[in-house]
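Need a sequence for this fold. Nothing fancy.
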């Protein structure tokens, strides 16, 4: 066996796994691997943003768009500590990132060399990162690398995907040993688990018996690439589809059977259908507080009065919040294919759901009547609905939207019509500010021929403004739409609504008389070499966005949006012990009869 340097083995393994990019930042700890990547630079590209947080958000977004992973590379100590937050985002949204971190030389373990974390254990970075990855590996010799790399890649992509860490001491990159290249890891979805035949029979029995069924989909359907099967199944039986944010687009949201998002910031028809349903088929979705009106019965769901079939490939999610009547441990696509095959053997009653459809059509009409006028209104600053509507009008169906965190996200969850899977990326479970503004760079590298637009708050963007430099350095033509409302307005809204309007630390001001302040974002962008425009009138936004997308260069639009127009709540959200509020549109509905079981 020929001798190989640790750094070369890692590089060749990344190439063998068809990993085209390493997103990362140098440090003395990882120069050994940089040297190996230098020699392979025609086969794997290093992209070096200005903050490690950005590198990991980029990797996360890249995976969400392509379902193929890339690696991040950070140095020992502070550089690697900077990826904790974005890895938490990736973990809570089941996104794969191969996080390669460097550590101090093994011969210096426990001597407190520069940047070692060793209060309790030598070279203790794995303990910092363990809560936010599926697994952390620390190979301390070159001959440990083949197994660690293979296990890391396999763990990352198998079952429910997620970030994995390989923490490598400085010397291991440069030392040589006789090592064999491990086989490439199976790609995402290489192994798929199905339901038992009796579970499928029981599921179909329940589905055909229901008079008010609804399907609830989450990221599991997206990750399983089950859009076609979901669409065929829902249309065959006419079952409406409610979506959590990372499931959006798996079922075309312009289809009348698509009811949108559910929960406080959901669409009224989704909450109405959720609380009136007699059967919910939840697939790859996890009933988190925001998509379940904090589990308070009658706002979004009515379990256990309503029956529940819960399908997921992670047993930890089955019954986490609602005990299912039928729990199925299976891959979403396989399960749906099994349902479709079983349906071929049964004869569903034609028109059985007509009364349910009539109710739903009525709720959709009410919602449409309530919301439509605001989509037409011109104003300065802009009405939020107008930004959403004009984005939809300008962007093609395959464009990728990376949402950030805050009020803008609430509006997009309520009103964005995603038409294809993997076109709307959301930091849903962890909601890390900067995910959208940074992630859009990774999304564009994953889909170079499609428009990629980030709608990001003024607060979110200011967390990662150096994304401008990276877009210019690497010529990544993305568009940032800054939803500029001069503050951390989603949090200010909580102070206004729940804390008597006592506002502190939630808006951006300058001077003693509290003049609203923000940097001139367009000027800031131009200083970085990015084209930019400020849009303060709604009449100008659509044209500006069209121009920015067409320009095919990094482009920033600073869009002034009215902070005082709030998204209408159609469910609720509770932060105990603070009292929760009744919806602004629609109301709680509790069944009169006792639970059916
Ligand atoms: C890294 C991080 N810090 C803090 C928060 C808490 N937080 C959630 S939304 C928000 C305000 C977002 O401000 P902005 O981007 O301007 O959006 P807006 O709500 O004003 O639309 C904050 C601070 C968070 N989610 N992530
Ligand atoms: Mg803001």
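Here you go.
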């Amino acid at each position: 066996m020929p001798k190989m340097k640790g750094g070369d083995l890692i590089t060749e393994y990344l190439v063998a796994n068809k990993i085209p990019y390493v997103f990362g930042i140098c440090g003395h700890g990882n120069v050994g691997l940089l040297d190996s990547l230098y020699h392979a630079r025609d086969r794997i590209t290093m992209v070096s943003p200005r903050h490690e947080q950005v590198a990991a958000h980029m990797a996360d977004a890249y995976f969400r768009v392509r379902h193929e992973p890339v690696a991040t590379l950070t140095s020992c100590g502070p550089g690697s500590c900077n990826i904790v937050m974005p890895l938490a985002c990736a973990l809570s949204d089941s996104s794969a990132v191969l996080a390669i971190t460097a550590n101090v030389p093994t011969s210096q373990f426990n001597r407190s060399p520069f940047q070692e974390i060793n209060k309790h254990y030598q070279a203790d970075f794995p303990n910092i990162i363990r809560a936010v990855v599926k697994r952390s590996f620390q190979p301390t010799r070159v001959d440990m690398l083949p197994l660690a790399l293979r296990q890391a890649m396999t763990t990352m992509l198998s079952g429910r995907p997620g970030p994995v860490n390989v923490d490598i001491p400085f010397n291991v990159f440069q030392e040589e040993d006789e090592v064999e290249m491990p086989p490439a890891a199976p790609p995402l979805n290489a192994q798929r688990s199905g339901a038992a035949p009796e579970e499928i029979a029981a599921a179909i029995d329940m589905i055909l018996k229901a008079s008010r069924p609804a399907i609830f989909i989450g990221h599991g359907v997206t990750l399983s690439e089950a859009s076609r099967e979901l669409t065929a199944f829902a249309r065959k039986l006419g079952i409406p589809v409610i979506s959590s944010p990372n499931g959006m687009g798996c079922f075309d949201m312009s289809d009348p059977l698509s009811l949108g998002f559910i929960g406080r910031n959901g669409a009224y028809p989704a909450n109405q259908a959720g609380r009136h349903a007699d059967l919910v088929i939840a697939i790859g979705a996890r009933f988190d507080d925001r998509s379940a009106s904090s589990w308070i019965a009658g706002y979004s769901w009515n379990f256990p009065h309503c029956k529940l079939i819960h399908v997921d490939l992670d047993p930890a999610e089955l019954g986490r919040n609602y005990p299912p009547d039928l729990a199925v441990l299976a891959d979403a696509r396989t399960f749906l294919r099994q349902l479709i095959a079983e349906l071929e053997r049964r004869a569903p009653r034609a028109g059985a759901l007509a009364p349910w459809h009539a109710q739903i059509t009525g709720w959709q009409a009410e919602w449409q009547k309530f919301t439509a006028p605001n989509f037409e209104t011109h104003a300065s600053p802009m009405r939020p609905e107008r930004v959403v509507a004009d984005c939809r009008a300008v962007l093609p169906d395959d464009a990728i939207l990376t949402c950030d965190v805050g009020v803008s996200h609430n509006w997009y969850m309520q009103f964005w019509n995603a038409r294809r899977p993997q076109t709307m990326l959301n930091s849903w479970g962890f909601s890390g500010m900067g995910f959208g503004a940074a992630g859009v760079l990774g999304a564009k590298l994953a889909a170079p021929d499609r428009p990629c637009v980030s709608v990001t708050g003024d607060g979110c963007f200011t967390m990662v403004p150096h994304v401008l430099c990276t877009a210019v350095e690497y010529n990544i033509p993305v568009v940032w739409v800054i939803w500029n409302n001069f503050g951390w307005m989603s949090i200010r809204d909580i102070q206004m609504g729940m804390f008597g309007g006592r506002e502190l630390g939630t808006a951006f001001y300058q001077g003693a008389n509290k003049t609203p302040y923000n940097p001139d974002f367009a000027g800031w962008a131009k200083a970085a070499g990015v084209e930019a425009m400020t849009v303060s009138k709604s009449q100008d936004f659509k044209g500006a966005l069209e121009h920015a997308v067409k320009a095919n260069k990094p482009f920033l639009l600073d869009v002034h949006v009215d902070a005082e127009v709030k998204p209408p709540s159609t469910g609720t959200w509770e932060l105990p012990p603070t009292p929760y509020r009744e919806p602004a549109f629609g109301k709680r509905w509790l069944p009169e009869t006792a639970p059916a079981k």
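For context: Residues 405-408, 431-433, 457-460, 483, 485, 487-491 surround thiamine diphosphate (ligand 1) (CB under 6 Å).
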